[in-house]
Amino acid sequence: MDFDKESQQRILRVAADKNEGRPTEELDERIARVLELHPEFDSIWEEGDMASIPREINGMIVNPFVHTVLHVIIDRQLQVGDPDYIAAAHTRLTEQGMDSHEALHAIIAIYANLHFAGTRKSTQFDSLDYETQVNSLAYKTE
């Protein structure tokens, strides 16, 4: 899944299918699972193309489209076990007491930072840095 118009349209279609109770394809099922995790986006999808505009949600600036794409990317990595350290990190974090969705967000944050830093610099995604940062994730309770 990419950060493009086609992905945006697909997310909007899946949101509409979800709201209408229509069946979905495999990738669409991934998108639908992400949408279930973020009910705060439900009314935003009804805005169509305007849903890709960043806005404040729960005290944070969020682009629902970008957030959903990032979730789908990490969900796929987790489900297919590639790279394998994603599933290991998710398991480790949840075993340490972190909520599953929070663990996904911790991994997503690393991926997003590396992806967009590479995009800004026109460089390749740094897989070794990704692995190193993901492997260093730990749930700290206070």
What do these coordinates show?
The protein has two domains: 1-63, no CATH class; 81-142, no CATH class. The chain has seven helices and two strands, in the order αααββαααα. The protein has helices spanning 5-20, 26-37, 42-45, 64-80, 84-95, 100-121, 127-135; strands at residues 55-57, 60-62. A two-stranded antiparallel sheet has the order 1-2. Strand 1 and strand 2 form a beta hairpin. Helix 4 (64-80) packs across helix 5 (84-95) and helix 4 packs across helix 6 (100-121). It starts with a helix and ends in a 7-residue tail after the last helix.
Offer a concise description of the structure:
The protein has 142 residues and is mainly α. It has 7 helices and 2 strands, in the order H-H-H-E-E-H-H-H-H.
As a percent range, the share of helical residues equals 55-70%
List the domain count as a whole number: 2
* Secondary-structure element string: HHHEEHHHH
Shape field: globular
Could you give the distance between the termini?
A: 37 Å
Please mark out the parts with pLDDT under 50 across 5 or more consecutive residues, or reply none: none
Key features?
142 residues, mainly alpha, 2 domains, two-stranded antiparallel ribbon, 7 helices, 2 strands, 4% strand, globular
